[in-house]
Structure formats: C-alpha cells, structure tokens
Amino acid sequence: MTVVVFSDLDDTLFHTKRKCLDLSEHKDATALSSGEVGAYSSPQQQALISLFNDSIIIPVTGRRTDSLNRVLMDFSSYKIASHGAIVINHQNKLDPTWRLILGKEEPQWRNRMDQLKQQLELDVERLDIEVRVRIVNDQGYACYVCVKGDPLYLKLLINKTDKESTEGFTVHANDRNLAFLPPYASKRRAVDFLKCLFKNENNRHITFFGFGDSLSDAGFMSICDFQIIPSNSQIAEVLR
Ligand SMILES: [Mg+2]
C-alpha cells in the first residue's frame, strides 16, 4: 500500500523557538543559518510523524529552498517550497517540467511584484507602521511578495492596499506573515502536479494525506484523501 503525505511544516510538524514555552521532550527540528536550533517538534508532533514512518512525506512549505534544506528531517522524495512556487525532485533539483511552467509564467509577474512591493512600501510609510516588505526569490525566480510584522499592522496594511495592485494575487495572512502570491505560487497547484506524477509513476493505488494548519493549506489538503489539522491552528479556529 503506498501512502503519500503532503505536509506543511511550520506550526504543523514543528514550532519556531518563539512559540515553544516548555521544551521538555521536544526534539530539534530545524537549524538556523547560524547553526542554532530554529524550531522544535513537540511530543505530539513527533508521534504524528512516527505514524507515517513508512510513508512518503513531501514537505509543502512557504519556506525557501535553503531554509527547507535546514529542516532536520529526511525528505527523500519530492519537495515543495516557497508556497508552491518551487517543486524539487528526487535529485534535489528544480523539477524540469516545473521549470518550464515557471519559465513561462514568472516573467509575466516579476514586474507586477516589483510594483506591488513599491506600493506596499508607500502604504507602510503612510500608515507609519513597522513591517518588512520583500520579494522572496528562490532558485532564481521571484516567488511572492512577503510582509512580516505585527498581525495588527498587517491587517491595517491589507485594508489600505488598493485592489488594482493586488489583482490576480492570492492573499495569505497568518499570524506575523502576509504573502501576496502569483498564480504559480500555489500549494494546491504544486500538490496537484505531484499527485499526477505519482499516479503516472505507480500502477498501485495511492492514498494521499494532507497535513496543515493555515487556511492557505486548506486548498491542497482538500485534494487529498484525508486531512490532519493541529487543534491550535487557523483552520481549527474556523471549524470551531
Ligand atoms: Mg504552517
């Protein structure tokens, strides 16, 4: 029986140091570029991972490739980084078919992202708030516009931003992160792409699981056979 798990990482399989108040029985989960531990898996998160020891686990993360490479788990199959904009193959290289998709779509959005970044910086100045705006580049491609800061400031910024400059982008907000995602930065689209590859490569039936905590994960989780959601999460909050 083949089981494939598509799993978000942060706040699903581990929490950053800032969110871990009690570290008893926690396991190191990521390293920072400095070499320090960046995140920990709780005993419950470790138990969840161990249930799927014999499965193929595919990370589906907002992290860039370099940050994903510092996660202390062995991912031996495909990997999805930068909110779905990057699909990495078994050889740890950008998947060649996915590269063709990026080659076609990314140039159409690069300028739009530059303009959106400038607009957001102007809005930040007008609102007099402290947030950081940047374009996240990964593997040589502009992947999405990222804003980090206090959740209240991010809400103010979303309300201020005009509809024209964000048209066509998907807006994802959770906690201290706000992202404006072009159509090729879609976790659901990347998972759908890999599901097709798995089905073509395997004659046997495959069962797909989706793990995630954010509303932005719900799309890719919904195209899996089963979904697993942490209790303390944005999705669980909506279900409550
Ligand atoms: Mg998450």
Helix-strand blueprint:
Elements: E1 2-7, E2 15-16, E3 27-31, E4 37-41, H1 43-51, E5 56-59, H2 65-68, E6 79-81, E7 86-88, H3 96-127, E8 131-138, E9 141-149, H4 151-160, H5 163-166, E10 170-174, E11 177-181, H6 187-201, E12 206-211, H7 215-222, E13 226-228, H8 234-239
Parallel strand pairs: 1-5, 1-12, 12-13
Antiparallel strand pairs: 2-4, 3-4, 6-7, 8-9, 9-11, 10-11
Helix pairs in contact: 6-7
The chain binds magnesium ion.
Describe this structure as you would to a colleague:
37% of the residues lie in helices and 27% in strands. It has 2 domains: 2-96 and 186-239, HAD superfamily/HAD-like (Rossmann fold, 3-Layer(aba) Sandwich); 97-181, no CATH class. Helix 6 (187-201) runs parallel beside helix 7. It is globular and about 55 Å long. It has 8 helices and 13 strands. Bound molecules: magnesium ion.
Mean model confidence by pLDDT: 95
How would the global form be characterised? globular
Cα-atom radius of gyration: 18 Å
- Going across the biggest sheet, name each strand in turn: 5-1-12-13
Bound heterogens, unique? magnesium ion
Question: What is the count of distinct domains?
Answer: 2
**Helix/strand class:** alpha/beta
**CATH homologous superfamily label of the largest domain:** HAD superfamily/HAD-like
- Cα distance spanning the termini: 34 Å
- Compute the number of strand runs: 13
> Any low-confidence stretches, pLDDT <50, length ≥5?
none
What is the H/E string?
EEEEHEHEEHEEHHEEHEHEH
Major sheet characteristics = 4 strands, parallel
CATH fold category name of the largest domain: Rossmann fold
What's the CATH architecture of the largest domain? 3-Layer(aba) Sandwich
The CATH class assignment of the largest domain is Alpha Beta
Number of helices: 8
Helix content: 25-40%
Task: Name the beta content range.
Answer: 25-35%
